[in-house]
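A quick aside before the break. I want you to see a complete sequence-to-structure record at least once, exactly as it would be stored in a machine-readable document. Don't worry about memorizing anything.
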Amino acid sequence: MMRRAWATPVVALAAILTLGGCAELDFLSQTAKNVNQEPPHGGGYKVGNPYQIDGVWYYPAVDYNYVETGIASWYGPNFHGKFTANGERYDQNALTAAHRTLPMPSIVRVTNLENGRSVKLTVNDRGPYAKGRIIDVSRRSAQLLGFDGKGTARVRVEIVADESRALAAKLTGKTDPNIVAEKPPAAPVGAVASADLAPPPGVRAAPPTATAAPPKAPHPVASAPPRAPEPVVETVPVKPTSIYVQAGAFARYDNANRMKARLQSLGPTRVTQVNLGNRPLFRVRVGPIQSVDDADKVLDRVMKAGYPEARIIVD
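That is the input. The structure line, written in tokens, reads:
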């Protein structure tokens, strides 16, 4: 389990003194207020402004194409009952997660690449702020994904675009017609009246029939409170994965090659090419690395070498 930098107002104050910068001060001080002050209307939809932690800028944004691999952690008892970044009460037994940049709330699918277990979670908080982690899930989520005892896992996180759009539309009132269909107005219904008619000529009216007594109402039975639906845990095939520290990505190979030369003393370093549409992208990666602990150490060295945007990825 990973502890986040703003666990309590005291820790947040210490972080403010250490980190400095207007964006950090505003973000952390607001977090400290949320711990002690009930928001006026509970949770809502929020994207947020850019903020900086430990020299790294994070840019919250709407991104319905988001998918990333990396290391997940979880948080629980120390935060249970406190306020999340969008004003909800954190429940360690709910299927929720903290993410650095996705809108709150968003729906994401988190897949444990080590055992194939996969669940949908609602992002309603910011974090994790520990280096080398891409998502912080609730305790219950970690249990379902099978890494609550271990503390971390190699995961893939991908946004569930349709459900996230629908949730945003519900909370903001801004409907995307391609995702959420508007309900058509109900057809008008006129008033209906009834009356007894006289029998036609030459026909005798039937004697009135006795009206049956209405059935007695059954004795009230106390109903059980509604139960939350059981979480759906899917299982996908497991493939071998490796851990790397990605120091950067460049449109020009010579820039990537220069970074590779600077980092080779930290471990096996390679340049790999991927294509984004018709454009090549050259990624500089250190690895493969055997464990998460070793990856954390390599990441720290790469960042101290002058690359604060470096991150741990799983491939």
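Two observations worth writing down. Residues 5-41, 177-184, 223-227 have pLDDT under 50 and may be disordered. The longest strand covers residues 279-289. We'll return to this after the break.
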